[in-house]
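Researcher: Dear colleague, please comment on this protein.
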Amino acid sequence: MDKLTQYRQAIKTLIERHARFKPRGKEVERQRIFDTEHDHYQLVNVGWHHVERIHHCVMHFDIKNHQVWIQHNSTEAEIDKELIALGIAPEDIIIAFHRQSLRPT
């Protein structure tokens, strides 16, 4: 399996794993968004909690230049470590929501 295919599959596996956990007491659909043509991947909560509308990005990944960019993570999970366990090389993981000056070089 080539690197790009492996990285796409790892992201999908991670999103599927986290999609199983539904917020308690909320009528929420967990939408998995897999745009393999442009390499954008998201897990989004959509629904209602009483009279409050919920539309929330739980996690968002992009693949750019054969690297996985973690654009957003609103979970307490260390998803970078989960991605490494799924076979993504640590040097190919970019924590995009950290300022560039805070990222390791």
